[in-house]
Amino acid sequence: MRPLSPNERLARYGPTVGDRIRLADTDLWIRVAEDRQAPGDEPIWGYAKTIRPRATQGGASDSELDVVVAGVIVLDPILGAIKADIGIKEGRIVGVGRAGSDVLTEGIDLRIGPHTQPIMGYGLIATPGAIDSHVHLISPELLPAALSGGVTTLITAGFEEPPWGMARTLAGISDWPVNVGLQACARAEDDGPLQALLDAGACGFKIHEDYGAYPELIDHVLRFADARDVTVSLHTDGLHESAELEDTVAAIAGRTVHAYHVEGSGGGHVPDVIGLVREPNVICSSTTPTVPFGMHAAAEQVPMIALNHGASMGVEADVALVRERVHPATMAAEGPLHELGAIAIVNSDSQGMGRMMETVRRTFQLAHVMGSWHGTARGDDPYDATDRVLRYLAKVTVEPAITHGIADHVGSLRPGRLADIVLWEPAYVGVKPALVLKGGMAAWAPLGDGNATVERAEPTRYRGDWGGRPRAAGSLSATFVSSAATGSPELRRLGRQVIAVRRTRGLTRESLARNRAVAQIEVDVGDGSVDLDGQRLAMEPVREVPLSRLYLLR
Amino acid sequence: MRLTAWEEERLLIFSAAELARRHREAGLRLNAPEAIALICDAMLEAARAGADHDEVEAAGYEAVGTDAVLPGVTALVPEVRLEVLMDDGTRLVVLHEPLGPAGDDAPGAVRQAEPAERNDRRDRLEVEVTNTSTRVVRVSSHYPFERVNRRLEFDRPSAAGHRLDIEAGSTERWAPGETRTVRLIRVR
Q1: Residues B92 and B164 in one domain
Q2: Which of A59, A296, A343, B20 has the highest count of CB atoms within 10 angstroms of its CB?
Q3: Could you count the other beta carbons within 10 Å of the beta carbon of residue B57?
Q4: Please, what is the end-to-end C-alpha distance for chain B in angstroms?
Q5: Residue A330 CA: distances (Å) to CA of A304, A433, A536
Q6: CATH code, domain with B133
């Protein structure tokens, strides 16, 4: 028996420790830091392979896995880039380690038994299902877009309320293989209406200038949220009708807030809302259209703002109002602030000024673009951008998970989390997944010809797999609520896991995983340009992005 | 027409291929979905015209030249799977690297490190094995060697607790009547 050549080894077992992998058509390479499999005892399913009784499959036991994703490159904001087997039991991850049979191999921490379903991860990359923390559930068409873009958790940003509408939205989404948490718009400065939103299943509040983002409202909602451990997300007063930036900061008064689209064109204090990156208690995010800052980013903004905010393109005064929100100089600072880790999160703002399928894609595009920004430290090794990749991956996984009080359940592949796992071929990372597992079940994938003798014969199209079908999907998914609603019979009747958010209050940038910077920037209140330590913080608009033309039919 | 979903899928491939042809005629280089659509369309059309399996395969391989695609696209199409309707019914065609090999440092490329030294001190032993069967016998890497097909003759007691010392998922083959020496390794 001739030993395998290096290329054959790669084809059978995928990359291993020390290998470097180029992520799709970006300039980003990751280096595999560790291989937790036992060399020589790899569990592989198939003809003449090893997952069989008497080989890497052991006997039945209580600890035997339901599912093993074997030999995959785990790319996780906490665990890093490692080769391992992922063990899944009852819809949750029980370990990222070495799977097999104790009889055969030393150091087994994940037991393959007669009831373990093998998923071959060799040659694939596994990331946590992404979290989009700024979703407007404008239409159900968002859901296939989310899943096709690797997103498995949606935290909304208001407009599903009142409670009557929230109940029906939660019912309508219940058969989709996504976790969902509704942040409801806080539109009153008294407790009754806020409590009613929590009772209906809200996991937090959104303060939105289109419903008023007044200092007194901010103060009241934060006081209410602090007492009940729920999130507050903020779109500030762009008109300066009730408050300017310093008034908003004073009203927040050191309490935890998730500030949306701090670049500004999505809404908020014109033009200096980006000054919120100075506040350690404010966790900042930016939305998809300006990530990364492209040469046409400003051009699309005026109609986008008008259509999303009740303005009319036929009314001159409306158009003038909208135009004042668009500041290319601030857009130019957004990427650098992400690179520095001062803006922690990327999210979509779906159908409300953002693109549902592009949260992950644009985050990787930004990581690629910022690798050549003049302010970026040059590493010694052009084939190892693992740290940058993990920092950007964190922006759509663990950082929003921490911010929204759901990090025990999503945002990482650490043990205990829901087995929401996106598998990617290295050539397609960030743009088109190979398979989305929801709660350990295949839920979304480019499925093929239903009559074919093999799976994935052309034409392949993204569709729901068994875990994405009604009744299965809901049971594999969570609805995130406040502790006020975990016992709600209406919510339980939907057949989903109903889970309370926790530890949402008292968070600062220090609470995050990889994007902890606080940047003492200066913002020019004329054109919105940004300086840091006396230097202009700006990147050139990009003309071309990876993860795009090569992959997408349009 | 009584179209099934399977027939409607043909129209989807046709539409994508038409779009790809239009882009190609406009002097644009193709992306991955466009190239795959053209490859599939060429094979479906060949089969429709009565081509045999080899001819259909050839039509797929010839459909799109390496120069017709955007740089990097070759790496995005490692394989195409398609079922066509030949004169003897539905048949599977699988193309391997229809646009050619991906090339160094292509999208998704892997740069392999020097293999790590393995410090595996498990006992190994060599056994001479004769296949007394009239059939080919293969044994895979992790099968307990003392329990292999009784028509393989060797010092069976010595093999207890051992498996073949070959890579996981590989096999050793014995032709009828063949005698060969193989190396075994102690499990754990």
Answers
A1: no
A2: A343
A3: 18
A4: 63
A5: 18, 32, 11
A6: 2.10.150.10
The fraction of chain A above a pLDDT of 90, given in percent, is: 94
Residue A379 has pLDDT above 80, yes or no: no
Q: Helix axis angle, A215-228 relative to A191-199, nearest 10°? A: 50
Number of domains chain B is built from: 2
From-to residues of CATH 2.30.40.10 in chain A: 6-123
Query: What's the domain range around B34?
Result: 5-96
A453 neighbourhood in chain B, CB within 8 Å: 83, 92
Cβ-in-10-Å burial (0-12, 13-18, 19+) of A264 comes to buried
List, in sequence order, every beta strand (DSSP E) within A2-136.
20-22, 29-31, 34-35, 67-76, 80-89, 92-97, 99-100, 110-111, 117-120, 125-128, 130-135
CATH fold of the domain at A6-123? Urease, subunit C; domain 1 (2.30.40)
Question: What is the 3-state secondary structure of A503-534?
Answer: CCCCCCHHHCCCCCCCCCEEECCCCCCEEECC
Cβ contacts of A289 within 8 Å, gap of 6 or more: A265, A266, A297, A300, A301, A304, A349, A353, A354, A355
pLDDT score of B79? 98
For residues A373-393, average pLDDT: 89
Across A3-31, b (16+ Cβ under 10 Å) vs e yields ebeeeebbebbbbbbbbbbbbbbbebbbb
Whether the pLDDT of residue A2 is over 90: the answer is no
Query: What is the model's pLDDT at position B120?
Result: 78
Read off the CATH number of the domain in which B47 is found. Answer: 3.30.280.10
Kindly indicate whether the ipTM for this predicted assembly is greater than 0.90, answering yes or no: yes
Residues B75 and B27 in one domain: yes
Q: What is the pLDDT of residues A438-495, one digit of tens each?
A: 999 999 999 999 999 999 999 999 999 999 999 999 999 999 999 999 999 999 999 9
User: Distance of CA A343 to CAs A264, A280, A354, Å?
Assistant: 13, 11, 17
Residues in chain B: 188
Task: State whether residue B159 sits within 8 Å of chain A by CB.
Answer: no
Residue A376 has pLDDT above 90, yes or no: no
More confident residue, A265 or A244: A244
Q: Do B32 and A551 touch (CB under 8 A)?
A: yes
Contact flag A24-B188 (C-beta cutoff 8 Å): no
**Structure confidence at residue A265 (pLDDT):** 85
Residue B74: its pLDDT value, please?
Answer: 98
**Cβ-based contacts of B188 with chain A (< 8 Å):** 103-106
Question: B28: buried, middle or exposed (CB in 10 Å: 19+, 13-18, 0-12)?
Answer: middle
Mean pLDDT of A196-203: 97
**Token pair listed for B89:** 């019914």
> What predicted TM-score, i.e. pTM, was given to this entire model?
0.97
> A525 — contact with chain B (CB < 8 Å)?
no
Q: Where are the beta strands (DSSP E) in A121-165?
A: 125-128, 130-135, 151-156
Determine whether A134 is an active site residue. Answer: no
Are residues B33 and B89 located together in one domain of the fold? yes
Closest approach of chain B CAs to the CA of A54, in angstroms?
6
| Phi, then psi, of A281 in degrees rounded to 5 | -85, -5
Of B105, B147, B172, the CB nearest to A1: B172
Query: ∠A332-A335-A338 over CA atoms, to 5°?
Result: 145
β-pairing, A151-156 with A92-97?
A: unpaired
At A146, the pLDDT band (50, 70, 90 cuts) reads: very high
b/e A44-64 (16+ beta carbons within 10 angstroms → b): bbeeebbbbeebbbbeeeeeb
Split at pLDDT 50, 70, 90, the class of B188 is confident
